[in-house]
């Protein structure tokens, strides 16, 4: 008797010579070709600026951006219903990044071609993170994604985030 696998027990196995997953690399290239998004965390808030109007603070394939925005909204709603308080941005980032990472593991799905920026207030503290196409996420004082990511990162390195006001960050983001 032979058994037929469903495919769900298989793992993505198309690796580059240096050990990276090709599908994640392709998804990252989609993000790099998208519109530029810059986010700046200040002492009193977070400013997000985008090169063009996009459905969310993200760069990449629009359907993937919309899917991740829906996942984030569903996670926020579920948390609110369950705990009766708004979801902290760090927990939202963790939950969305788990979806992104899970979509890099199985051949029946492909990695998301989007890198969402999640911002919010965690109590009195501003919070800013960016989720990579691999599912890894990092907290930032300033981050950028999209076509002009490198230029924006160079400009972000010049800023003193701890003393920057939201008003000044808005001017800096518009300049970038």
Summarize this structure briefly:
This protein has 176 residues and is an alpha+beta fold.
Number of domains: 1
Radius of gyration: 18 Å
Q: What would you call the structural class?
A: alpha+beta
Distance N terminus to C terminus?
A: 64 Å
**H/E element sequence:** HEEHHEEEEHH
Number of strands: 6
Oligomeric form of this entry? single chain
Strand percent estimate: 15-25%
Residue-averaged pLDDT: 86
Q: Helical residue percent? A: 25-40%
Descriptive report:
This protein is α+β, with helices and mostly antiparallel strands and 176 residues long. It has a single domain, classed as Aminohydrolase, N-terminal nucleophile (Ntn) domain (Glutamine Phosphoribosylpyrophosphate, subunit 1, domain 1, 4-Layer Sandwich), CATH 3.60.20.10. The chain has five helices and six strands. The strands form two sheets. Strands 2-1-6 form a three-stranded antiparallel beta sheet. A three-stranded antiparallel beta sheet has the order 3-4-5, with helices on one face. Helix 2 (62-83) crosses helix 3 (89-102). The model is unreliable at 1-11 (pLDDT under 50). The 26S proteasome consists of a 20S proteasome core and two 19S regulatory subunits. Pfam families: Proteasome (PF00227), Proteasome_A_N (PF10584).
Name the features.
176 residues, alpha+beta, Glutamine Phosphoribosylpyrophosphate, subunit 1, domain 1, three-stranded antiparallel β-sheet, 5 helices, 17% strand, disordered N terminus
Chart the SSEs and their pairings.
Blueprint: H1 22-32, E1 37-41, E2 46-50, H2 62-83, H3 89-102, E3 117-122, E4 125-131, E5 137-139, E6 142-145, H4 149-156, H5 166-175
Antiparallel strand pairs: 1-2, 1-6, 3-4, 4-5
Helix pairs in contact: 2-3
